[in-house]
Design a protein that fits this description.
9 strands, 38% helix, 3-stranded antiparallel sheet, 6-stranded mixed sheet
Length: 265
């Protein structure tokens, strides 16, 4: 059987993040990728200049088209910028019994542009947190979801992961890429305990799309039948490889993308 994953997210016109990064990741990891575009962004490596939200009814129509025909093994959810889009996605997940759902609560682009309306944060927590099998916030996103300060160490990261479990999440991967030190450590926090995944911190400005890439890599692993711990470990290794090879690319004048296909070219 062909492993299939779908990404429900925003489009990045420069190709480094969002839907484009997700589809590249799925392909690189041997998974067939489908897509539901929830927003269009006018974006490049230096920033986001405009966002056009897709009407909720059309988001729903895309979801129905994909799930009614394709045997979807995993679903990755990325940028959903307004409450109506979040509601449409939540209802679509329920309608089709989506499984292996990975929620990346995208709030701010690498360039600093805000991608999630403030009013949508509560909607995201209320409608999607408990419907996801894994939530993958970075340090600022975890803090925003909990209404608290950004974690400064792994003890605080663990506490925030447990706080999100208390808010309804089934499992949380707190990403430490915004932290400091020689390692970039992510913590997988579940009701069963905590697992630590670390990789050497790589000095590069080409980090556009790292969050999208990691979450879609986890979804790809789940689509192929890996358990959650194995899927997170494989995704962390793939992202580290893509970041390490990022400087082989010369894309744009700002934060360039990671190299999704570094194993091939």
């Amino acid at each position: 059987m062909t492993a299939i994953a779908v990404t429900i997210a925003g489009s990045d016109s420069s190709g480094g993040a969002g839907i484009q990064a997700d589809l590249k990741t799925f392909s690189a990891l041997g998974v067939y990728g489908a897509s539901v575009i929830a927003a269009l962004t006018a974006q490049n490596t230096t920033g986001v200049t405009a966002i056009h939200d897709v009407p909720p009814a059309f988001i729903a129509a895309q979801i129905d088209a994909v799930f009614s025909d394709l045997a979807v093994d995993a679903t990755k959810i990325g940028m959903l910028s307004v409450p109506a889009a979040i509601t449409a996605v939540a209802e679509g997940l329920d309608r089709h019994g989506a499984r292996n759902v990975v929620l990346d609560p995208v709030m701010v682009a690498t360039s600093g542009a805000r991608l999630l309306a403030p009013a949508a944060v509560d909607a995201l927590i209320r409608a999607l947190l408990a419907r996801a099998d894994l939530v993958t916030p970075n340090l600022p996103e975890a803090a925003a979801l909990l209404g608290t300060a950004v974690a400064h160490d792994e003890a605080e990261m663990r506490a925030q992961g447990e706080g999100l479990l208390a808010r309804g999440a089934r499992a949380v991967l707190i990403k430490g890429g915004h932290g400091a030190g020689p390692e970039s450590a992510d913590l997988l926090v579940t009701p069963a305990g905590v697992r630590r995944f670390a990789a050497p911190r790589i000095a590069t400005r080409n980090t556009h799309g790292t969050g999208c890439t990691l979450s879609s890599a986890v979804a790809a692993g789940l689509a192929k039948g890996l358990d959650l711990v194995a899927a997170v470990g494989a995704a962390k290794a793939y992202l580290a490889e893509a970041i390490a090879a990022a400087d082989r690319l010369s894309i744009g004048s700002g934060h360039g993308p990671v190299h999704h296909f570094s194993r091939w070219w």
